[in-house]
Amino acid sequence: MSARREDGSAGDANYGVIGVNYKRYRQPDAEIEKYLVEALGDARTVLNVGAGAGSYEPRGRIVAAVEPSAAMRSQRGPDRVLAVDAVAENLPFVNASFDASMATFSIHQWKDMEKGLSEMRRVTSGPVVLLTCDPDSLDRFWLNEYAPEAIAVEASRYPKLDRVAEALGGEIEIVSVPIPLQCTDGFSEAYYGRPEGLLDPGARLANSAWSFVAPEVGDRFVERLTCDLGSGEWDRRYGHYRQQANFDGSLRLIISRPLSVTTAD
Predict the structure, then answer these.
(1) 227 burial class (0-12, 13-18, 19+ CB within 10 angstroms)?
(2) How deeply is 31 buried, as exposed, middle or buried, from its count of CB atoms within 10 A (0-12, 13-18, 19+)?
(3) What is the mean pLDDT of the chain?
(4) Residues paired with residue 104 on neighbouring β-strands, in sequence order
(5) Region 21-50: what's the mean pLDDT?
(6) Computed from CA positions of residues 139, 141, 145, 146, in that sequence, does the dihedral angle turn out positive or negative?
(7) Has this prediction a pTM greater than 0.85?
(8) What is the distance between the alpha carbons of residues 66 and 87, in angstroms, rounded to a whole number?
């Protein structure tokens, strides 16, 4: 595995830079959280891999967290457990340590996704739950017109859903998660009906895609979107999103449950 960065970031994004004010922009969304809670079922012990500041960690359960970035670990509140400094590909737990495990917006950043998912399955006796994005659906978002480079780089980073399913094994369920209009988790599509939000440099910084494109891409995006908002062009073409309660974008929940074992008579 490649060497980790100065703050411990082990994936393709440098959270020592982009994670400084991450928690301000990326708050867990209650509507999205419902899908995760349901997928975790009645698991009493839960492992969160690539746990960041602790978004979506379930309440009322025994939680363990793994996060390699010191910048992200430092943003975990006093109500969150201390995160272990480790990576998905080498989880420091014995087999079947947890009833369930989860990873949110994380698997596309791992050095070796297959190994990381194998490790999650190794330490988990029940469901493995992943919140991720379908790379084939990212171009549904209007950002594809304004900054196609950002969409393209995200599509290249997020693994195909069938690849994730194959790596996980077990009984696979893939759920399309609607994105609410007032989504508090500021990933790019969360601003589908609030385009002004993406003019905030901090909001873009909290989305790792922007760190993989040239600065002039962001400058061009800001200039054009500002112009189109001012002229009414954005609203003429996309203004219906401002009243649309949910957006069917790329957000997916992938659930892997162990295969049922049957005993012959």
Answers:
(1) exposed
(2) middle
(3) 92
(4) 131
(5) 94
(6) negative
(7) yes
(8) 7
